[in-house]
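Assemble and predict.
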Amino acid sequence: MISDLNSRGESSGEVPTNGHGPAGDPAASNAIAVEHIVKKYGDFTAVDGVSFNVKEEEIFGLLGPNGAGKSTLIRMMTTLIPVTAGSARIAGHDVQNDPDAVRRAIGVIPQALTSDLDLTIEENLNIYAKLYDVPAKKRKAAIDELLELVDLTKWRSAQTKTLSGGMRRRLEIARGLVHSPRIFFLDEPTTGLDPVSRVAVWEMLTNIKSHRQLTILITTHYMDEADRLCDRIAIVDHGKLVALDTPAALKASVPGSNVIEAQFDNVPAGWEDRLKKMSEVTSVQHEGAGMYRVLTGDGSRTTTELVEAAVHSGVKIRSLSVQNTTLDDVFVHYTGRQLRDELVKAHAFVMPPRPGLQP
Amino acid sequence: MNHILAIVEREMRKFFRSPALMMASMVFPLVQLIVLGNAFGGKIRDAKLGLVDQDGGTQALKIREAFDSVRANMRTFEPVYYNDPKTAMDDVRNGKIQGAVIIPPQYSRRVYEQDQPRIALVVDNSDNFMSSTLEDELTSITNALNQPTIEPRILQQTVLQIVELYPYIEYMKYLLPGSITLAMFVSVMIGGGMLYIDDKARGVHEGYLVTPITKTELVFGLNAAGAIKAIMTGVVITVIGSLLAGVGTVFNPAIAVQLLILIVLTSVAFNTMMFLLMVRVEDPLVPRAIFGILNTLLFFPSGAIYPIQAFPKWLRGIAAVDPFTFAVHGFKSILLKEAGMTAIWPDMLYLSIFALITLSIATPLFKRTL
């Protein structure tokens, strides 16, 4: 199983998996099957031999830092860019040999807001229904149902440029579903949205999932989003798959079950080393301004030791909190903390947003 | 076919939702028609011409009367009288007056003695147009003085020249075919070139690249939409321009049909040309940057504003393959000469072949992926 995935390299050892990886349950049918897929731009390898399977009706999350290769991966799976090597079968169709069959089976919400700003919500949906060959008789009913699902019925005649960012994202979701696809790809669907709009999009996706038999592949760098929505999560970094499992299993795979966040005043030299030596502590991260993030297998015991050490050394504790490990910790554990300032080939000139029209 | 229609519908809805774009594609050629038509179509009026009469005789008086006649009728120049030739020449150099005529001493006596009478014209030849106009006018006056027996006919000619108080219309008519052609070019530049590249830059095209539309359908849809916008622009400018320039032929139904055919073929040819030029462009600043170059390279050699016969060979070479040339020739033949289909079929044939070739090259170059 692990051999089907990428090895993580020096920092993490093996890819943790709960047995539902690429070759996981042979009985389960796969909506998406990606095998050793590679994308190169000249000498730069954006995606490097990634393999995974997504089962029917699963919500699968692709996580990774900026520039990790998530969008490249999703663009290959949605036929937007050619594959350099390897293969991807979507709904049983090969993306390279049968791209039209793939396109008919999938709905895609690209990262950019791609609805026409000058058209109304209904016009946008109508045009795309025609592009997807939705029969004229079924078009109106399909659009009415989708507008209800994404709660945009009363704005159906509003021009897209007058909508808020959250409403436009909901329109995109409706547009991606206008032909009732089997598989739904969402590339960072909540990036740039305010917290309320994000929650609204989550609820909408959950609602849609309950109404339709849909497999969803979602990329995000919001850990809470992945935790809440996804059945399984793959973490991608430097174009490689570094972890793949359920959110709970991934959290369990990180050494230390608790996180202590503490801020100190006047820390003496060697304070970080002292923290690292405390019992059950697996890692310490200095986050600046006297703030330390300590991963530990026993939160209570480490907290007690930490308070004692502070009192003994005359260090003032400004704040202290203990919590369970989150996907943030999983993410940092598997991807590290360095910035991803990679140069990648620009797909196109990036047009500045129209003033006042972006979310 | 449904996919092509969907792309056309999308483009047309966007087009009508952005009236500013539609206006921009029409206003520029109309402004050019009005401004260039008036600026280049006119004749010199009220130039100041110095007159130094060192003779003071009866023949010199005839010249002064002729000057007054020009001032009263053609108004090409207004005489300014000087006593001293040096002051007059200084004023020509300083630009206070545009030329000076010097009637030398003994001029009248030489006329009577038929002893090679001469008058001098001092012109500022840094302005060729002005100096040649004054030279022409003075030549005409001296011819008239040399042939007094036909003086009444000269007066009659002067009366005829008064009819030319509306000379602008003549040049505007000449310019109208070019303006119609230019309007369609601006339309495909905005509607066929820039909009698709702007879509690409904003990532909007990702939306329809993930649909099952084929490359050919997408190419035909985008080209059909661009051509329809250009056709609408062409029709509107033909009507408005004809009214402005005083061309009535457009209201003849047979000619209107010929015009429509030519507008359709020109729009398609221009749009496929623009599509080929922009098919691999990613940066939306590129079409904006090359607009001026294309305009100069295609519009000016076409004979729209100056006869091709006056061009050097290399410029005639550009004109020979420039689709503008054929469109302008076609519109001139129909609008100004009412020459009918027999005169424009070579233009129509060329525009059709041009469209086929450009589309055949552009289609394989079009990228169905990002």
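The longest strand of chain A covers residues 30-41.
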